[in-house]
């Protein structure tokens, strides 16, 4: 993870791990909501704070992942060339998406079945697993939908769009086309030069330091949010037909990461922590949390204004949180850290397999008369621990680890 493809930026390893592990905590918290949202199980101990946590964490965790994915994608494209890059995307994204769905879908379905059974006080693990396996014959909502692996599908779509645009601009899969001088037709070369100079000019203008550029990004994101089915970011896990507002939102994050790698000086600006960023982020969070409740009363006077304000506040919260997180990690993780590097390598695997573990643990703890915070911590700790043990024993030093991490690495525990 480098700015110039030679100097490693260790804090981006930590950002990637944080973005994915935050997803574990997000899903683990869903059973503690005080209202039923269709999740597998509803715990006997709930809290209104969970709703606020979900609103805030959902605003940044996946956008941050796609931003980092865009950064890494551009770096890999320059280092590997288009052909090898596509091959790596095949093994690191498409294969985990297909195989992961086949393995995890029945386990997730079984968790939902056992969650419904727990509401009646009777959980049959064997029956739940059997019904989960049978669900492969009749997928819920269609093939390859109904799991948390939708993010891989959207990453594949965005990557395909990126490659398609490059093909149009370059007329070839020249591995140096995006990083070195190329022999493209004069008009296309001039078009690329114009785009590059426009981006650099815009980012280096004095008014950019006054956050005018950020305003443009926030307005674009707010327009996408306005067209979501719900207030905030939709989760597009019900269909393989791309949800256009979601696709545009995550494409914007991916493109931002791509440009941060292409123009290294932008990364310094993006991760710079300032008083204004913190203040406006705090105001955006308060505004979004305060306005989100009006989603449940769509017929009240002024709902149009409330939704506009919420969309702008949510977009502002999303981008400023990403910038602050990158800045904080940039301050803390200056040097290489073996633990952080290990968690960064393992985080992809952890996120792939965590959901059925989380749901099963939620079912197991749902009727236990403990405070929700204790159960939430235990579910997160057990999920990450089990996932790490499986990663170290069966993934890290095997062919699976090579496909997920780019190469096999030595074990830490076994």
Question: How are the SSEs ordered, and which strands pair?
Answer:
Layout: H1 11-29, H2 49-80, H3 82-119, H4 125-134, H5 150-170, H6 186-204, H7 212-226, H8 244-262, H9 264-270, H10 275-291, H11 303-332, H12 338-365, H13 372-394, H14 399-405
Helix pairs in contact: 1-2, 1-11, 1-12, 1-13, 2-3, 2-8, 2-11, 3-4, 3-5, 3-12, 7-8, 7-11, 8-9, 10-11, 12-13
Please summarize what this structure is.
The chain is mainly alpha-helical and 414 residues long.
The helix/strand class is mainly alpha
Over the alpha carbons, how many angstroms does the gyration radius reach?
22 Å
What profile does the largest beta sheet have? none
Question: What general outline do the C-alpha atoms trace?
Answer: globular
Q: How many distinct helices?
A: 14
Beta strand %? under 5%
Whole-number count of domains: 2
Order of helices and strands: HHHHHHHHHHHHHH
Low-confidence stretches: 1-6, 172-178, 180-184, 206-210
Average pLDDT, rounded to a whole number, is: 83
Helix percent band: 55-70%
Please report the total strand number as a whole number: 0
Cα(first) to Cα(last) distance is: 28 Å
């Amino acid at each position: 993870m480098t700015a110039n493809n030679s100097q490693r930026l260790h804090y981006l390893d930590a950002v990637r791990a944080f973005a994915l592990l935050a997803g574990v905590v997000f899903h683990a918290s869903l059973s503690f909501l005080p209202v039923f949202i269709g999740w597998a199980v509803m715990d006997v101990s709930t809290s209104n704070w969970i709703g606020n946590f979900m609103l805030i964490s959902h605003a940044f965790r996946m956008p941050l992942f796609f931003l980092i994915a865009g950064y890494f994608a551009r770096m890999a494209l320059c280092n590997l060339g288009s052909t090898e890059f596509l091959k790596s995307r095949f093994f690191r994204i498409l294969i985990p998406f297909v195989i992961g769905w086949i393995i995890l879908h029945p386990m997730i379905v079984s968790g939902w079945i056992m969650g419904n059974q727990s509401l009646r006080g009777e959980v049959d693990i064997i029956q739940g697993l059997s019904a989960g396996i049978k669900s492969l014959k009749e997928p819920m909502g269609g093939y390859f939908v109904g799991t948390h692996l939708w993010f891989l599908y959207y990453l594949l779509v965005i990557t395909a769009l990126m490659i398609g645009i490059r093909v149009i601009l370059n007329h070839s899969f020249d591995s140096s086309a995006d990083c070195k001088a190329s022999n493209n037709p004069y008009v296309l070369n001039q078009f690329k030069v114009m785009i590059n100079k426009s981006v650099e000019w815009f980012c280096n203008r004095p008014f950019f330091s006054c956050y005018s550029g950020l305003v443009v990004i926030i307005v674009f994101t707010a327009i996408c949010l306005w067209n979501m089915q719900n207030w905030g970011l939709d989760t597009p896990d019900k269909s393989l037909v791309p949800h256009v507002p979601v696709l545009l939102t995550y494409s914007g994050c991916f493109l931002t990461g791509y440009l941060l790698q292409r123009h290294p000086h932008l990364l310094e600006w993006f991760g710079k922590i300032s008083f204004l960023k913190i203040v406006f982020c705090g105001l955006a969070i308060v505004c979004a949390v305060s306005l989100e409740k009006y989603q449940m009363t769509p017929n009240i006077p002024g709902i149009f204004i409330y939704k506009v304000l919420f969309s702008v506040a949510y977009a502002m919260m999303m981008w400023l949180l990403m910038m602050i997180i990158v800045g904080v990690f940039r301050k803390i993780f200056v040097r290489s850290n073996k633990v952080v590097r290990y968690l960064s390598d393992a985080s992809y695997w952890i996120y792939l397999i965590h959901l059925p573990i989380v749901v099963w643990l939620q079912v197991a703890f749902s009727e236990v008369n403990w405070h929700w915070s204790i159960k939430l911590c235990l579910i997160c700790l057990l999920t990450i621990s089990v996932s790490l043990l499986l990663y170290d024993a069966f993934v890290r030093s095997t062919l699976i680890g090579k496909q997920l991490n780019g190469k096999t690495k030595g074990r830490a525990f076994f």
